Amino acid sequence: MSVREIPMYIDGKPEISQSQDWHDVVNPATQEVVARVPFCTAEEVERAVASGKEAFKAWRKVPLGKRMRIMLKLQALIRDNTAELAALITEEHGKTLPDAEGEVGRGLEVVEHACSITSLQLGELAENAANEVDVYSMHQPLGVGAGITAFNFPIMLPCFMFPLAIATGNTFVLKPSEQDPSSTMRLVELAHEAGVPAGVLNVVHGGPDVANQIADHQDIKALSFIGSTHVGSLLYNRAAAAGKRMQSMMGAKNHCVVMPDANRSQAINNLLGSAFGAAGQRCMANSVVVLVGDAREWLNDIVEGARGMKVGPGTERDADLGPLVSPQAKERVERLITAGEKEGAKLMVDGRGCTVDGYPEGNFVGPTLFADVNADMTIYREEVFGPVLCVVSVETLDDAIEFINANPNGNGTSIFTNSGWVARRFETDIDVGQIGINVPIPVPVAYFSFTGSRASKLGDLGPNGKQAIAFWTQTKTVTARWFEPENVSSGINSTISLG
């Protein structure tokens, strides 16, 4: 099998980097090198930004209708190429093909939302706000925007960024994860096939040096980041110091509350899928289950469900979870499992030492479940980002709410119940940005904004929905009066009154 060389994308064309620093992209189920990705030079990043800056001069003036038609074409191309995109995701990330296809579908939602740009970017008008004075606002693009994405959703996360950014008239520089870039690059090719002009969407690759250069660059006006809390906090501070607009969607510790009145089989199947799907490598995975009252008696059923899940390569459609993305990720997850044991959590299901026939080199960790977990344990305090489920037991709904609100993160939480009163109480009192009611992974549809909160988010505006339009545009307000040609001034008005 030939090894792909991942290109940059600058000024409308794929281009091989001149960097001497190249990294292997590895199939996590086999350890086979499938591609090589460059860590671009500072000069190449400068060229990508310069291309975006130059293209912005013309792109910002392209009519909304034409931008809409490009998005319409892009959504059709993504839909037609879902199988190819999903196969690339599975090859480099490891998630199962059905999960990868679902990811493409969630990314597609954002592009479909961007097709409504002719109504999303409308301003407001107050006619005759004062004597023959009209006041109106316009939402205009900022200039060059940028995005830095994590490995766990190589299609969905770029779609959280560049479609609405360029639909609103900005140009864009994207730095995808170096761990699984091929599907992202195919997405960028489809965007250009759809009609995105040269320079409007550029791609560079790299590590911390490239990310810092993007955060510091004075010609980049806004930066969107999705990834770890450590990196997101550093980049947020750098970007703020450089005077740019910034959004950082970061780490999480998500909780799933199970009430005793919930549909038992539905709740258990959903919480297991949320915790262990994609091998737990989701920032919205519910990695903590809070069993309330008599629901604590369901623990054995949850354990048996976890034991029955199938681990395998992502290409096997009946697999419930695939490998972790890298040997380093596997080592870290297994180290945290060991820490959980040492700190007194009760290990009910142990996924360490997981083997899959025919894939002896795969980064597999099986579903792992701890009971008797408390808030002081490492497996609770840290985001494991692996197939590890912590089970906490409490007496009442109040106890569950208090426990969750004490956690510093606020990305997502879910509750399973058949009581409308309980659900409403939960959504009112819980201090978390995204809530699922009988929904295990509460990522909202793309025409609603992604609203993680507290330590999971820096910046006032999140991706998608109305907040994304506000993030990628600046508002100009015009106050206008037109005099009749023969109008004679009635004298000097030295007050603030419009008169």
From TrEMBL:
Q: Which Pfam families match?
A: Aldedh
Domain Aldehyde dehydrogenase, chain residue ranges per copy:
19-478
The record's annotation in InterPro entries points to:
Ald_DH/histidinol_DH, Ald_DH_C, Ald_DH_CS_CYS, Ald_DH_N, Aldehyde_DH_dom, MeMal-semiAld_DH
Please provide the record's keywords in A-Z order.
NAD, Oxidoreductase
Name the UniProt record assigns to this protein: methylmalonate-semialdehyde dehydrogenase (CoA acylating)
> Which EC number(s) are documented for this chain?
1.2.1.27
Q: Which organism is it from?
A: Halomonas llamarensis
Q: Which domain of life is it from?
A: Bacteria
The family annotation for this protein states:
Belongs to the aldehyde dehydrogenase family.
